[in-house]
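Subject: Interface between my chains keeps coming out wrong

I've been trying for a while to get a sensible model of this assembly. When I model each chain on its own everything looks fine, but I need the whole thing in one frame so I can look at the contacts. Pasting all components below, labels as-is. Any help appreciated, I'm running out of ideas.
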Amino acid sequence: MSVTLCECFARDGLQHETVEVPTGTKVKLIDAMTAAGFPRIEVTSYSHPGRVPVFGDASAVLAKIKRRGGIGYKATCPNERAVSRALEDFALGHGATEISFLASATESHTERNLRTTRDGQWVRIEEMSRLAGDRFTIVGVLSVALGCPFEGSVDPGRVVEDAARFAEVGATLLTVGDTVGTGTPSTVRHLFRRLIDEVPGITPVAHFHDTRGTGLANCMAAFDAGCTHFDSAFGGVGGHPTQISYGQGRTGNVATEDLVSLLEAEGVATGIDLDAMMRLSECCENALGRQLDSKVARAGLLPAAA
Amino acid sequence: MSVTLCECFARDGLQHETVEVPTGTKVKLIDAMTAAGFPRIEVTSYSHPGRVPVFGDASAVLAKIKRRGGIGYKATCPNERAVSRALEDFALGHGATEISFLASATESHTERNLRTTRDGQWVRIEEMSRLAGDRFTIVGVLSVALGCPFEGSVDPGRVVEDAARFAEVGATLLTVGDTVGTGTPSTVRHLFRRLIDEVPGITPVAHFHDTRGTGLANCMAAFDAGCTHFDSAFGGVGGHPTQISYGQGRTGNVATEDLVSLLEAEGVATGIDLDAMMRLSECCENALGRQLDSKVARAGLLPAAA
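Reply #2:
Try treating it as a single job with all components included. I did that and got this:
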């Protein structure tokens, strides 16, 4: 058994950090992720540099990282302008290999997070997809797929429809976001079984937030349901946009160290060099200048699978 | 579906705390646990008051708490002297209803933690059991049942043998301790299935530490395997003895708030009043004068089961 991880520290992790991380440090961290064996790495975002200054160096980071063949280097694209920039970098020979487009499973969250309607966002996604052509792996990202802070529970049928819609516009991966950490093992298992059964053209990726401590339990439930792709971030950083009020609490991603350690202990191959991962964990803490939230970073790895 | 929780804040939680909690505060917290509907409460320990001063008030706490019928009030008994004290309190009409005896699944851990051999400890347990007679529910506690810091992995067959041995000396509950947090969903599932199948005379209790972030995932695995009894502590406090070097890291119990919230969200009845639990969570933080490690305490409860 093996799974494919996407390390999200450099984008999702940094998006809402107040600490400034220099371009050179980002490049070093991403190069170390490549060397450690992460098969997919979320590198940056083509957000408007005025609005999200932390990614003002998107093209510079993509130009400077040392790449390995077969590894996915992802950049998020919030709009058509972002796709144009991705295309420019592609033309210059240092493009992302994956770009992601964002939708939300509910109207209220779409309105608050994307400032449009779901219909409006789908028109935008179709246009972005047309622009991108076949130059990139397209990753659909669906927020609040396991619960919405404004509308409560989300019909899995809606998520299945959105998955099919993403597949129609050419996405081959679907990041299933438990944005506010309200998924549970049974809702996760049910949703992932449906996605795998009903939309075979797109591979679901578990992107879970540990808001209520259920991150790892939910990852294992997704794995049980057949999920093979997981997102995580070193030290559990990142998570939902802080400008939207979702209630209190840390809402970070599942910590890469804890997820990889658990998967490997369960005999599930991640392809990641565990010693290199533990060194990277320290580098990420140094980059942010504080202790982060991985428990394995403090306690050490789980024993290897028998 | 329903499960039986044991709240361990007042004993396991306080055992290694440096903050002094007055007897009156302990009594108030335990009374609030009773009122909130916890079916089992770990109240105190008959440890030597010179060695573990925090439980010097064991008899006073047991005398002052307001009890409800059917609720288990547990006191740990490390040795024969402790059982004699439990008997004295019983004779005075304010005894514990449950007493627990401790063993370790490995020789090395027995030596370091109990300063004897496994054979020596079993002789002691037999003597304690004889002394106690039939006045109490006897709870066997088995440390390092899912991995030992000195010997590594632990043969589930050994745990099954110890469970049978505890049943022979009259124990009806077996606290299965993942002392250093090295259990994983698959090792937990395997062990609990074997215990339930092979030692029907004793009910296993999942007592898991969240050292590597796997606490909730392991609880859900135990539940899947048929486990109906769980230990937890408010704020995730407590855990293994700090005087024994197990490596770094917080090694607290599974947080009651997070476990109860998850079980209830999964449609598993705990009988606990969730609002009362959230108020108690704050009281426990106030008692220790710091923010504790429950995520639900920060983020709020998971949505109720559909």
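Reply #3:
Confirming on my end. The longest strand of chain A covers residues 171-178.
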